[in-house]
């Protein structure tokens, strides 16, 4: 299973905003440069993030985007839900009545376990956790 670029790049953009949290609005073009993600694609990614209440847009000459809440209050699951939707590896996990065999299907049970494991990790991590990991990696310097 792979996350799409929507989920991966949205998380990187949100981490970028978290690293700038409290310093004022951040321009998408600056995130684009730092994260090496096209400006146009970032603009599209910010639509669901804004709709989910995770970022706020500020208009005007000193405008840009900020996190709508503190980094400690935004879970990775919030970002994934806004950009990717369900973490279920198969549609039948979220839709019980999709298949007549769902109640006896052992593979569906496995897919459900995978979803629960993914959800547990994503629920347990906040943007603040990523900020701390980022700072630790930067302090350690490049690996040889």
End-to-end separation in angstroms reads 30 Å
- Per DSSP E runs of 2 or more residues, the count of β-strands stands at 2
Strand order of the largest sheet: 1-2
Low-confidence stretches: none
What series of H and E elements makes up the topology? HHHEEHHHH
Mean pLDDT reading: 93
For this structure, the quaternary state is single chain
Strand content: 5-15%
For the record, the CATH class is Mainly Alpha
Number of helices: 7
Q: How many structural domains does the protein architecture include?
A: 1
How helix-rich are the residues, as a percent range? 55-70%
Which architecture does the CATH hierarchy give at level 2? Orthogonal Bundle
CATH fold-level topology: Arc Repressor Mutant, subunit A
Largest sheet: 2 strands, antiparallel
Supply the CATH superfamily name.
Answer: Winged helix-like DNA-binding domain superfamily/Winged helix DNA-binding domain
Q: In one word, what is the shape?
A: elongated
Rounded to an integer in angstroms, the radius of gyration calculated over CA atoms is 18 Å
Q: What topology does this entry show?
A:
Blueprint: H1 5-19, H2 28-35, H3 39-51, E1 55-58, E2 64-67, H4 76-83, H5 91-94, H6 106-124, H7 127-140
Antiparallel strand pairs: 1-2
């Amino acid at each position: 299973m792979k996350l799409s670029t929507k989920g991966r790049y949205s998380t990187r953009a949100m981490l970028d905003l978290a690293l700038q949290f409290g310093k004022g609005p951040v321009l998408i073009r600056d995130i684009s440069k730092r994260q090496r993600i096209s400006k146009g694609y970032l603009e599209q990614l910010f639509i669901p993030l804004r709709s989910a209440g995770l970022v706020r847009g500020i208009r005007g000459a000193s405008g840009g985007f900020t996190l709508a809440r503190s980094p400690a209050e935004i879970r990775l699951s919030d970002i994934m839900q806004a950009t990717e939707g369900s973490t279920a590896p198969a549609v039948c996990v979220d839709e019980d009545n999709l298949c007549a065999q769902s109640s006896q299907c052992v593979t569906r049970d496995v897919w459900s376990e995978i979803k629960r494991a993914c959800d547990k990790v994503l629920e347990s991590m906040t943007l603040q956790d990523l900020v701390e990991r980022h700072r630790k990696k930067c302090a350690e310097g490049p690996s040889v």
